[in-house]
Amino acid sequence: MLSQTFKIVFICFTIVITSTITSCNQDIPNSSVKANLKVPSQNLTEFKVETKRGKLIYKKIPPVKSIRAYQGNEFYLVTTPQSPRGLVLRPSEKVDREQLKNFHNQQVEITAVYVPGTRPSGLRNSCPLDADGRCMIQGDGYRVISIQAVDE
Question: Nearest-5° angle of CA 36, CA 126, CA 123?
Answer without folding.
Answer: 55
